[in-house]
TrEMBL record:
Keywords of the record: Endoplasmic reticulum, FAD, Flavoprotein, Glycoprotein, Oxidoreductase, Signal
Gene3D superfamilies per the UniProt record, alphabetical: FAD/NAD(P)-binding domain (3.50.50.60)
Pfam family, one: Pyr_redox_3
Signal peptide range: 1-20
GO process annotations (BP): ERAD pathway
Assembly: Interacts with SEL1L. May interact with OS9 and DNAJC10. Interacts with TXNDC16.
Requisite cofactors: FAD
UniProt protein name: FAD-dependent oxidoreductase domain-containing protein 2
Any one GO molecular-function label of the UniProt entry: flavin adenine dinucleotide binding
Role: Probable flavoprotein which may function in endoplasmic reticulum associated degradation (ERAD). May bind non-native proteins in the endoplasmic reticulum and target them to the ubiquitination machinery for subsequent degradation.
Similarity remark: Belongs to the FOXRED2 family.
């Protein structure tokens, strides 16, 4: 009996162990890609994953997408422009001036169909995001708050580990790649003595009548602070605003996150001496004390260090006791905190090494220029939380910027995990000038993510053709071959948009006389946004990228060309824009990129050792335009060719002596000569 009993016990043990293993495996719901957050960047990422046929899921803690916009901005007016008319029908160009639409193939999902306002109401954004998720049938799991994320090492996983996620109901999920699109939603709070008397932007009343006849102090100097002030400007006694930094106007810094004109009414009342005012000071040095009447007095922290705590407010030294004209000596009825938001690091286990940035980027997680976490491979940060890559430089923290960086991340993932190279198009070298001119005049990704995303032109051997890649992150240019699956053996051009080097800044006068450059020979001094073309004989190295000047988007090139700024942002002028660009490209490639009529190619074939590429790839292959009297007359009238009636070429044309002969016949004839 003993052996039988032992056998039964052993079998029971093995069966129980099997059940536990099955239960453990079932406890983790697996997806290749997990996206946390169904805000704009999360939905944008889901759109690209779905179009590629990938296994993904979005976890959203709310019952609907875009929950941030259901509450913010508190006063419901967005500062992202909704320009419905541009005078052009090119949809790619129009996205340059549509700051709210996400990228999709569905024309119904353009934001101009949801609002007619130039600065739309936030409720329109909520409706838009709901439709974006539902019409495209994106896989969003609502009412699912991810409360913990950790790693599980596994050599078989894509990145050497899996991401294990747990929601509020203790349901577990396993993912190979994690896309964090939660934005920055945790309010920034400064703790100082008396901070318990401060109201937060997230809860303060938005009814102006609640502030009638009151004196208000606002902590902060961003758009939320000025938005709050704008709402109550007409009913308060006066408003003071204090922050450690000076006001930064977006039209001076060219950064859309700085103060926008729609919210800057307080600047008028301050400078026109209508009681309101701005002050600079470190908030951590402040202290607030409340008197018996409920009034709030501003003092300094060090005055409280040795005070008699039993003596009440009368024992506290106030700055005006020593300086009788102290700026904030008048008591306040309310103090409002408007200090913005920061990233929520609390849900990430230490194994992920999600660390905050440094300095003014500490509200964002540390990520690489590829938007991948510096601490964990396979974890990408999207949307507003990824703004550390271009903070105060470009538009990566806003919809009209991160819709393109999200697409770039998707393309990186497609190449890394699925062997799908970065999309590209191959053209003959004769189309080089046209390709660049077309992109700089209509591309919205280059325009919005200036100095961050660039078009890359990879030259083929002998520069007879080129491969065109759109909107690649320049911060990982040295990794281009690995990140895109494309080769760059023969040099490359990088096309990027830039402002002038010394034109942007809080202290800059951007309206000074002669601020614009109009002549092509001075294009390098252009101030406003304009295209810049960098030429490299070899792909820059990692070391060159690390050692580049901090104010430069790229390392020193072998050659560089600025296309002169244009008041209409229309870079199609033959003499000011196209001709200098073509000459620059010709110098870099040591070739002639002009287009020719057939008779010119015919003459070149007999008088030159090397034909221009247009003749090699066109006329010598029986392609191109055959000359005629009508074409000659049109060229003369347009000023494209001189009217030389006695020239040999015109005489041949007039006498109809220009034959179109097969390539082999031309070669034989040239050999005979």
């Amino acid at each position: 009996m003993a052996p039988a009993v032992c056998g039964m016990l052993l079998g029971l043990t093995l069966y129980t162990g099997h059940l536990c293993a099955v239960s453990a495996a079932a406890a983790f719901l697996y997806h290749d890609y997990c996206v946390i957050g169904a805000g704009p960047s999360g939905l944008q990422a889901a759109y690209f994953l779905q179009r590629a046929g990938r296994d993904y899921v979005i976890f959203e803690r709310s019952h609907a997408p875009g929950s941030f916009f259901a509450l913010y901005p508190r006063h419901r007016k967005l500062i992202s422009i909704n320009k419905r008319y541009t005078g052009k029908s090119n949809s790619e160009f129009n996205l340059r001036h549509d700051w709210n639409s996400l990228l999709s193939h569905d024309r119904r999902l353009l934001f101009r169909r949801y609002s007619r306002d130039f600065f739309p109401d936030a409720d329109a954004m909520v409706r838009y995001l709901e439709d974006f998720a539902s019409l495209l049938k994106l896989r969003v799991q609502y009412n699912t708050a991810i409360v913990h994320v950790m790693l599980e090492k596994d050599r078989q996983a894509w990145n050497g580990h899996y991401f294990l996620l747990t929601d509020q109901d203790r349901q577990n999920y396993k993912c190979s790649s994690l896309l964090v699109a939660t934005g920055t939603w945790v309010p920034n709070v400064v703790n100082f003595p008396g901070s318990e008397y401060v109201e937060g932007y997230e809860t303060v009343s938005i009814n102006p009548e609640d502030f009638a006849g009151q004196t208000v102090l606002i902590l902060g100097r961003g758009n939320s602070a000025f938005e709050t002030a704008e709402n109550i400007l007409g009913v308060t006694n006066f408003i003071h605003m204090v922050s450690r930094s000076r006001v930064r106007l977006s039209w001076a810094t060219h950064y859309v996150g700085d103060l926008r004109a729609i919210n800057n009414g307080l600047l008028d009342t301050y400078q026109l001496k209508s009681l309101d005012g701005l002050l600079e000071g470190d908030l951590e040095d402040l202290a607030i004390v409340k008197d018996k009447k409920g009034k709030l007095h501003i003092t300094l922290r060090f005055y409280l260090e040795n005070r008699n705590t039993s003596g009440g407010i009368d024992s506290i030294t106030l700055p005006q006791d020593e300086l009788d004209n102290f700026a904030t000596r008048a008591p306040y009825d309310r103090v409002i905190r408007c200090l913005g938001w920061k990233f929520d690091f609390s849900i990430y286990n230490r194994s992920l090494r999600m660390m905050p940035g440094k300095g003014n980027k500490k509200k964002y997680p540390q990520i690489k220029p590829s938007y991948e976490s510096r601490g964990t491979r396979g974890l990408f940060v999207l949307g507003t939380a990824s703004h550390s890559v271009d903070f105060r430089k470009s538009a990566g923290g806003f919809i009209h910027g991160f819709r393109y960086t999200t697409r770039a991340v998707h393309r990186l993932l497609e190449n890394r995990h699925h062997g799908v190279p970065w999309p590209s198009t191959v053209y003959p070298i004769t189309q080089l000038t046209n390709s660049i001119i077309k992109r700089v005049n209509e591309a919205s990704g280059l325009y919005q993510m200036f100095s961050v995303l660039a078009d890359i032109i990879l030259l083929r051997e002998n520069a007879t053709a080129f491969e065109y890649l759109e909107e690649y992150p320049v911060g990982v240019l040295a990794e281009l071959e690995m990140q895109t699956g494309r080769k760059a053996p023969s040099g490359l051009f990088v096309i990027i948009m830039e402002y002038g080097r010394n034109f942007s800044g809080a202290d800059k006068d951007v309206f000074y006389y002669n601020r614009a450059v109009g002549e092509a020979q001075h294009a390098w001094q252009s101030n406003f946004l304009h295209p810049v073309i960098y030429f490299y004989k070899h792909l820059p190295t990692e070391r060159e990228m690390r050692l580049q000047h901090p104010d430069w988007p790229l390392p020193r090139p072998d050659a560089v060309h600025h296309i002169v700024e244009d008041f209409l942002t229309d870079w199609t002028a033959p003499n000011a824009h196209i001709l200098p660009l073509r000459r620059f490209l010709e110098n870099c490639l040591s070739t002639d990129l002009r287009n020719f009529f057939a008779e010119s190619c015919f003459l070149f074939a007999f008088t030159h050792q090397k034909l221009p590429p247009f003749c090699q790839q066109g006329y010598m292959r029986l392609q191109g335009l055959v000359g005629s009297e009508g074409l000659r007359r049109h060229a003369v009238e347009a000023g494209l060719t001189p009217d030389k009636h006695e020239g040999s070429q015109d005489r041949l044309l007039r006498d109809h002596m220009i034959p179109v002969r097969p390539l082999q016949h031309l070669v034989n004839a040239k050999d005979e000569l």
